């Protein structure tokens, strides 16, 4: 497998301050005060003690990121050693898990006469531009998958946060889903669709991913703030269980100011996936009852991100790391590259 890297921006860029719903960059305290103190005051961070509390959370997050790869590998090893799955079969992707409508889309996209126009006649489009909806899994699989996730959640095995914005969920690579489930799902079934739908932004050359599940429940995470993903293309599948409200909403691309954006609400139905560009700003409205599990796959194209890091908007400086990391690769023809850019 190709060696993947992360971008050095990972350690200090795009840190999410949950209390203030704000993403920030931290290089030094002086820089941070200059860039964000007035903004934070307008959001309710008015005292020095509140500001110091913010700084403490930022330093803790930077430390977490600095040890992320090591801690993740340690958790994965411990999970493999002590955790006994409830439903072993869900770890191995089978065509019987997949919805017939999804298989029909894949069959069309892999045919020799497939065109974008033909695909548009088969796939459901949303009011948000270039957001597509289609059934992904059968209900029986979603039920077994959630039972497995809940079984793991209730176990004593260690658990890592999926990302800086979701407090509840599971990193699927640590649980052992990558090799036999997520990789074939991306390469065999999703790639034919993304190659037609998003060829202009890496959809035809997706070569890595980060996959996780997130959980929304009463007294836990209810919603998800407006953001963009560390991905070229994202698949978001609603797995269940029973819940009310909690639709997604989409704005414009990340380069467009929020003041110039009109958001569009998109319903999210169990077993169905929403496919969209990673840089398309979006969020999730709060659920009002029940529990909702979502499968998220951030799909990445090193061909695109090697030129421009999608998180810091600069040419990436690469840092060595393990696994798929953040999906950057070292260009052997580019002698100017140094090892150092990343974000989770």
UniProtKB/TrEMBL annotation:
Pfam family, one: OGFOD2-like
InterPro entries: Oxoglu/Fe-dep_dioxygenase_dom, Pro_4_hyd_alph
Region (Disordered): 324-344
Methyltransferase in keyword set: no
Annotated Fe2OG dioxygenase domain residues: 207-301
Compositionally biased tracts (Low complexity): 335-344
Essential cofactor(s): L-ascorbate
Family matches, as PROSITE patterns: FE2OG_OXY
Keyword annotations of the record: Dioxygenase, Iron, Metal-binding, Oxidoreductase, Vitamin C
Signal peptide coordinates: none
GO MF assignments: dioxygenase activity; iron ion binding; L-ascorbic acid binding; oxidoreductase activity, acting on paired donors, with incorporation or reduction of molecular oxygen
Domain of life: Eukaryota
Protein name, per record: Fe2OG dioxygenase domain-containing protein
UniProt lineage: Eukaryota, Metazoa, Chordata, Craniata, Vertebrata
Gene that this polypeptide is encoded by: ogfod2
């Amino acid at each position: 497998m190709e060696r993947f890297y992360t971008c050095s921006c990972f350690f200090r860029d795009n840190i999410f301050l949950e209390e203030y719903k704000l993403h920030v960059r931290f290089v030094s305290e002086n820089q941070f005060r200059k860039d964000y103190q007035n903004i934070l005051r307008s959001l309710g961070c008015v005292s020095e003690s509140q500001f110091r509390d913010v700084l403490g959370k930022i330093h803790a997050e930077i430390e977490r990121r600095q040890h992320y790869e090591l801690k993740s590998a340690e958790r994965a090893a411990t999970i493999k050693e002590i955790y006994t799955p409830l439903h072993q079969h869900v770890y191995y992707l089978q065509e019987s898990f997949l919805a017939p409508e999804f298989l029909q889309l894949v069959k069309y996209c892999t045919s020799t006469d497939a065109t974008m126009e033909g695909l548009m006649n088969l796939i459901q489009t949303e009011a948000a531009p270039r957001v597509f909806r289609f059934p992904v899994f059968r209900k029986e699989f979603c039920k077994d998958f959630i039972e497995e996730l809940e079984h793991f959640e209730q176990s004593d095995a260690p658990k890592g946060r999926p990302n800086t914005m979701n407090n509840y969920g599971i990193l699927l690579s640590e649980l052992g889903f990558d090799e036999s489930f997520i990789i074939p799902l991306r390469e065999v079934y999703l790639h034919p669709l993304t190659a037609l739908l998003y060829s202009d932004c890496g959809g035809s050359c997706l070569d890595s991913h980060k996959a996780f599940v997130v959980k929304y429940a009463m007294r836990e995470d209810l919603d998800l703030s407006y953001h963009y993903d560390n991905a070229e293309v994202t698949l978001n599948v609603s797995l269940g269980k029973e819940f009310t409200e909690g639709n997604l909403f989409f704005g414009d691309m990340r380069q467009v100011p929020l003041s110039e954006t009109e958001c569009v609400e998109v319903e999210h139905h169990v077993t169905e996936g929403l496919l969209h560009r990673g840089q398309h700003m979006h969020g999730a409205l709060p659920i009002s009852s029940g529990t909702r599990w979502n499968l998220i796959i951030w799909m990445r194209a090193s061909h695109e991100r090697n030129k421009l890091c999608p998180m810091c908007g600069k040419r990436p400086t690469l840092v060595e790391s393990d696994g798929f990391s953040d999906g950057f690769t070292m260009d052997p023809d580019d002698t100017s590259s140094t090892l150092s850019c990343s974000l989770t």
